[in-house]
């Protein structure tokens, strides 16, 4: 049965004691949702799988399956293998270390006021993508006082994780 390779990024799962969901449970949720070949990547709500459904249906089905497991709805952001490849290629900060570059995945294109809403910028660099925002933290995320008011609308992954998910979605080992 043909299908598309997708990566789903769950918001607020296994972070700070909220949204506890084991990666085994996430793979099981994918099976319940009808997805095939589910593989998780690190314990922070990342899973790659195959589905013949479109992106919105994938997000809805997986969101429902996860809600059944943990008793609360979580945001599910989905990208197919090609979209992840484009996120990698569009990186506006190629000189940034992968662990200091965050990609904030959003459900829709960032609003025009996205950059003007940012506060407490020190040495951070920020750029808009198609449905992502790239944030480079030269001094590290933990030291930053950066305020991104819109970040609650999406979920962030460091560039190393994004690269690994892109490889998994492309079908690489």
3D architecture notes:
This protein is of the alpha+beta class. The protein folds into two domains: 77 residues, 2-Layer Sandwich (Alpha-Beta Plaits); 76 residues, Alpha-Beta Plaits. The chain has four helices and eight strands, in the order βαββαβαββββα. The strands form two sheets. A four-stranded antiparallel beta sheet has the order 2-3-1-4, sandwiched between helices. The two termini are 21 Å apart.
Topology:
Blueprint: E1 4-10, H1 23-32, E2 36-40, E3 46-51, H2 55-70, E4 76-80, H3 81-89, E5 101-105, E6 125-128, E7 132-136, E8 155-158, H4 159-169
Antiparallel strand pairs: 1-3, 1-4, 2-3, 5-7, 5-8, 6-7
Helix pairs in contact: 1-2, 3-4
InterPro entries: DUF1697
Organism: Ruicaihuangia caeni
Protein name: DUF1697 domain-containing protein
The largest sheet, given as strand count, sense and whether it forms a barrel, is: 4 strands, antiparallel
Tally the structural domains: 2
- Determine the structural class based on helices, strands and strand pairing: alpha+beta
Q: For this structure, what is the CATH homologous superfamily of the largest domain? A: SP0830-like domains
Distance between the termini: 21 Å
Tally of helical runs: 4
Organism: Ruicaihuangia caeni
Protein name: DUF1697 domain-containing protein
Pfam families: DUF1697
Summarize the structure.
The chain is of the alpha+beta class.
């Amino acid at each position: 049965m043909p299908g598309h390779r997708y990566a789903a990024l769950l918001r607020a799962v296994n972070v700070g004691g909220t949204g506890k969901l084991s990666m085994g449970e996430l793979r099981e949720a994918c099976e319940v949702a009808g997805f095939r070949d589910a593989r998780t990547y690190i314990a922070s709500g990342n899973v790659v799988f195959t589905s013949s459904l479109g992106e919105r249906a994938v997000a809805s089905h997986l969101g429902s399956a996860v809600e059944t497991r943990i008793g609360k709805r979580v945001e599910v952001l989905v990208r197919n293998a090609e979209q992840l490849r484009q996120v990698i290629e569009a990186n506006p900060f190629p000189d940034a270390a992968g662990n200091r570059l965050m990609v904030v995945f959003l459900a829709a294109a960032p609003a025009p006021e996205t950059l003007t809403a940012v506060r407490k910028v020190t040495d951070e660099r920020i750029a808009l993508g198609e449905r992502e925002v790239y944030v480079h933290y030269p001094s590290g995320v933990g030291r930053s006082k950066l305020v991104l008011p819109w970040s609650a609308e999406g979920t962030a992954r460091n560039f190393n994780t994004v690269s690994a998910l892109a490889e998994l979605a492309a079908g690489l080992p």
